[in-house]
């Protein structure tokens, strides 16, 4: 966001001297079940760096772990593995006192600041609280400091004695920002700071944040699901999906030529405020998998339109392929239903599945397949009809699954300071971009 | 948009009266929705978008009230004929009379009247008529899917109940129909889903189920109030695609309310921009984005981040949306308008044509071809003839 460099400049910040380094961070939420429960891998091996004075964005859909990541970096969550170093110090090892000291330097702005503080306090008290907790100078100078902060974020002195409910959404967010600034931090995690605001108010808060960054030399990590906000304000962006960082890179490059299939799909889903933009977007099927039970290989493999196919299936049409994927999703879902559910189902109690032959007819009836594929599909259908759902799943896995479903992809360097997790970056496969070009042009721009 | 409208709203005014003040949430709004098209209604929170939709379906609760001079006309000939036969003494031919059923083209009378063109005014019509419209002719999809579903009944039961009440379909036939509906909104394995509770559905699935409920009685008009705002962008794309398909397959007319200009650009054929209870600009979607006329519409488009490309600061609109609590004898946008001049505070702007098609804006800057005095006169005059 600094004004001396263009948006395309990757090296705007001092990358050799990062302020925050996150290395292999993992945060798991334990299962509530006593035995046999799996933890939710909210953040699963995330690494990146944030340079001084930089704005680093994290985008992703709800439930991808972006907020947990922000909270983990600030040590508001217990981290299971990995390191977070701030200015060279590993903060995951800090004790209570050390943490308290450090938190002067690292603050957070929440989506709805009022839900996280006492509504019975006046705005002045809210902003003053962190100063008191940290015994900041004298009472008189605290008061003065609060007035100064209110003024700086665009509130008036008389607001000091007002209560949060008397404020509009934009003003409340200003209070939240003033509070975060109180202790002169170096680093602020902004968690969806504008997503609850109308677009015209949103623009004002974004402008304020960028002014403050310039004035105080702040480093930001911005968590957002709104990609246009991220594009406007961030220098570099990380795209998250199901606890993993799928792609990291300088904002403009990432937006104009996304490398990872998920980034591409996400970008192409943004409705463009331009009616002339064609409707050739990639619409992802289904929803993100349950983070308690993530796919075995690449986390995106269950929805990926670029998934690697076995060579003999390369020629299948997109429609044919999508139908198979849908069929497999459904069978996987049935296979993972509990034994009790299945027993009830057999007895005709409770949940009623749509008869599998009907499903198969709906999905494949109007499509033609090579003989071998046809045969496998029919066999799988018969297996399910006979009650062997697991066997049907395994059969389909044997026939159709590839590296995408077995192996979690590495982070590949894809040039210009970017990295992306996708098997297609490996030499033996076609790059996502090339694959797309062959399959017909879907590019968002 | 010269086609016959299916739904038209004329001078709609919905007010909420409290001890202290009267809030004119919707203050003289007019628009029409042509058959099989989508009208986008866009504006910030507090602009009156949702109240407009609720007014159409008679869902405004006390202390809210739709002003009796407002007109909400539903033009489906089959429906008009059915009502005309049921209420013969309410039928007026053309506009001469005070019945709530207007017949413009048709023949016969009494309970054998046939209607080719006409309309029913839902503001003047009795509650029973409005109820027969609600759900069966005009249905609504709300923003928060989970709160439109009953948490203690299975999704299947809720659809079956609706089919039973509105169409008298029950038993296994209702189950069959419910499964078909879920399938038509893209819910895989529908039979199984029927037995699940709303909380077992993901956010996107819930919104699909709500759309299935809205479609259960085969309406002609769908009012969508921010149906994708609570959803992630990839799920939003799925729901928008679904609505597009349903519109094509079922010939639906859609009123799509949103604050997101990107969504408007994608779904709408024509757009109404609302501000503080009034429509300030009406245009086809391409005209609005290519050449917005009203300063508010311009400001709104400019403040979208990421659109303006490489700018460091976003253009903003100063101040915030005022609460419309007095009659509009001035332009409500004037206090925030970069182009405001003295007269903006004393003359209420009326809609004037600002370009091809039905592109109109309510702003004293237009018509551009006229001099200031002439423009002021024109807005002043229109206002007086309105009283």
UniProtKB/TrEMBL annotation, chain A:
Signal sequence residues: none
Alphabetized Gene3D superfamilies for the sequence: P-loop containing nucleotide triphosphate hydrolases
Source organism superkingdom: Archaea
Keywords of this entry: ATP-binding, Nucleotide-binding, Transport
Domain (ABC transporter) ranges: 20-267
InterPro entries per UniProt: AAA+_ATPase, ABC_transp_ATP-bind, ABC_transporter-like_ATP-bd, ABC_transporter-like_CS, Oligopep_ABC_C, P-loop_NTPase
GO biological process, one term: peptide transport
GO MF assignments: ATP binding; ATP hydrolysis activity
Bias type Basic and acidic residues, positions: 425-445
SUPFAM superfamilies listed in its UniProt record: P-loop containing nucleoside triphosphate hydrolases (SSF52540)
Region annotation Disordered: where it falls in the sequence: 406-445
Family note: Belongs to the ABC transporter superfamily.
Cited NCBIfam families: oligo_HPY (TIGR01727)
Name of the protein this chain belongs to: Peptide/nickel transport system ATP-binding protein
Organism the protein comes from: Halovenus aranensis
Classification of source organism: Archaea, Methanobacteriati, Methanobacteriota, Stenosarchaea group, Halobacteria
From TrEMBL, chain B:
GO CC term, one of those recorded: plasma membrane
Enzyme kind, highest EC tier: translocase
Record localization: Cell membrane
ABC transporter domain location: 7-301
Record-listed E.C. numbers: 7.2.2.11
One protein family per Pfam: ABC_tran
Primary location group: membrane
GO molecular function, a single term: ABC-type nickel transporter activity
Membrane-topology annotation of the record: Peripheral membrane protein
Coiled-coil spans in chain: none
CDD domains xref list: ABC_NikE_OppD_transporters
Keywords, sorted A to Z: ATP-binding, Cell membrane, Ion transport, Membrane, Nucleotide-binding, Translocase, Transport
Catalytic activity: Ni(2+)(out) + ATP + H2O = Ni(2+)(in) + ADP + phosphate + H(+)
Subunit organization: The complex is composed of two ATP-binding proteins (NikD and NikE), two transmembrane proteins (NikB and NikC) and a solute-binding protein (NikA).
Protein name: Nickel import system ATP-binding protein NikD
Species of the source: Halovenus aranensis
């Amino acid at each position: 966001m600094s004004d001396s460099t263009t948006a395309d400049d990757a090296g705007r910040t001092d990358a050799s001297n990062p302020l925050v380094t996150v290395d292999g961070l993992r945060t798991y939420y334990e299962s509530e079940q006593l035995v046999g429960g799996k933890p939710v891998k909210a953040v699963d091996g995330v690494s990146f760096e944030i340079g001084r004075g930089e704005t680093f964005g994290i985008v992703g859909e709800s439930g991808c772990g972006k907020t947990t990541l922000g909270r983990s970096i600030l040590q508001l969550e217990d981290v299971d593995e990995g390191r977070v170093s701030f200015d060279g110090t590993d903060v995951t090892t800090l004790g209570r006192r050390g943490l308290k000291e450090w938190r002067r330097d690292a603050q957070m702005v929440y989506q709805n600041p009022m839900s996280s503080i006492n509504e019975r306090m006046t705005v002045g008290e809210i902003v003053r609280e962190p100063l008191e907790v940290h015994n900041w100078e004298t009472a008189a100078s605290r008061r003065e400091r609060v007035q100064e902060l209110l003024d700086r974020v665009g509130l008036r002195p008389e607001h000091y004695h007002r209560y949060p409910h008397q404020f509009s959404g934009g003003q409340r967010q200003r209070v939240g920002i003033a509070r975060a600034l109180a202790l002169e931090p170096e680093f602020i995690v902004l968690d969806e700071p504008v997503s609850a605001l109308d677009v015209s108010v949103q623009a004002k808060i974004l402008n304020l944040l960028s002014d403050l960054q310039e004035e105080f030399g702040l480093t930001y990590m911005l968590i957002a699901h709104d990609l246009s906000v991220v594009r406007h304000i961030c220098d570099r962006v990380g795209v998250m999906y199901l606890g993993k960082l799928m792609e990291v890179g300088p904002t403009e490059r990432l937006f104009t030529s996304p490398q990872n299939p998920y980034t591409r799909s996400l970008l192409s889903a943004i409705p463009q405020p331009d009616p002339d933009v064609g409707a050739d977007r990639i619409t992802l099927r289904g929803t993100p998998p349950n983070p308690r039970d993530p796919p075995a290989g690449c986390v995106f493999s269950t929805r990926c339109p670029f998934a690697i196919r076995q060579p003999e299936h390369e020629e299948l049409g997109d429609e044919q392929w999508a139908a198979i994927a849908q069929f497999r999703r459904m069978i996987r879902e049935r296979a993972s239903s509990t034994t009790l559910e299945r027993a009830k189902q057999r007895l005709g109690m409770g949940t009623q599945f749509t008869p599998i032959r009907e499903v198969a007819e709906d999905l494949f009836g109007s499509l033609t397949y090579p003989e071998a594929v046809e045969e496998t599909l029919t066999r799988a259908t018969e297996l399910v009809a006979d009650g062997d759902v697991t066997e049907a799943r395994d059969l389909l896995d044997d026939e159709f699954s590839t590296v995408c479903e077995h192996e979690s992809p590495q982070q590949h360097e894809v040039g210009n300071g970017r990295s992306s997790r996708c098997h297609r970056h490996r030499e033996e496969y076609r790059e996502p971009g090339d694959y797309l070009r062959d399959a017909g042009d879907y590019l968002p721009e | 948009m010269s086609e016959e409208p299916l739904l038209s709203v004329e001078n709609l005014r919905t007010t909420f009266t409290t001890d202290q003040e009267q809030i004119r949430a919707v203050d003289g709004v007019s628009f029409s929705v042509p058959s099989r098209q989508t009208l986008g209604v866009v504006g910030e929170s507090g602009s009156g978008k949702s109240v407009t939709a609720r007014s159409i379906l008679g869902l405004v609760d006390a202390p809210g009230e739709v002003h009796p001079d407002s007109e909400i006309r539903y033009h489906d000939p089959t429906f008009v004929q059915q009502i005309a036969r049921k209420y013969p003494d309410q039928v007026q031919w053309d506009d001469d009379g005070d019945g709530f059923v207007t017949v413009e083209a048709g023949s016969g009378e009494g309970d054998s009247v046939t209607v080719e063109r006409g309309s029913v005014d839902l503001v003047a019509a009795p509650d029973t008529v409005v109820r027969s419209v609600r759900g069966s002719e005009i249905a609504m999809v709300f923003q928060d899917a989970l709160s439109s579903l009953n948490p203690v009944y299975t999704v299947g039961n809720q659809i079956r109940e609706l089919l039973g009440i509105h169409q008298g379909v029950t038993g296994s036939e209702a189950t069959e129909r419910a499964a078909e509906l879920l399938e038509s909104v893209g819910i895989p394995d529908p039979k199984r889903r029927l037995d699940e509770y709303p909380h077992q559905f993901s956010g996107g699935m819930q919104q699909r189920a709500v759309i299935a409920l809205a479609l259960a009685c085969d309406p002609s008009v769908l009012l969508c109030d921010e149906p994708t705002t609570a959803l992630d962008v990839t799920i939003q794309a799925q729901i928008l695609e679904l609505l597009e398909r349903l519109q094509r397959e079922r010939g639906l007319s859609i009123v799509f309310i949103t604050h997101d200009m990107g969504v408007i650009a994608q779904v709408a054929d024509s757009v109404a921009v609302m501000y503080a209870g009034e429509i300030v600009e009406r245009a086809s979607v391409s005209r609005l984005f290519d050449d917005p006329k009203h300063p508010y519409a311009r400001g709104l488009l400019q403040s979208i981040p990421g659109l303006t490309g490489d700018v460091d600061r976003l253009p903003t609109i100063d101040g915030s949306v005022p609460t419309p609590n007095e009659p509009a004898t001035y332009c409500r946008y004037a206090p925030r308008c970069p182009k405001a001049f003295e007269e903006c505070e004393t003359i209420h702007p009326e809609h004037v044509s600002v370009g091809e098609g039905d592109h109109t804006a309510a702003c004293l800057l237009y018509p551009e071809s006229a001099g200031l005095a002439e423009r002021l006169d024109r807005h002043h005059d229109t206002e007086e003839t309105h009283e």
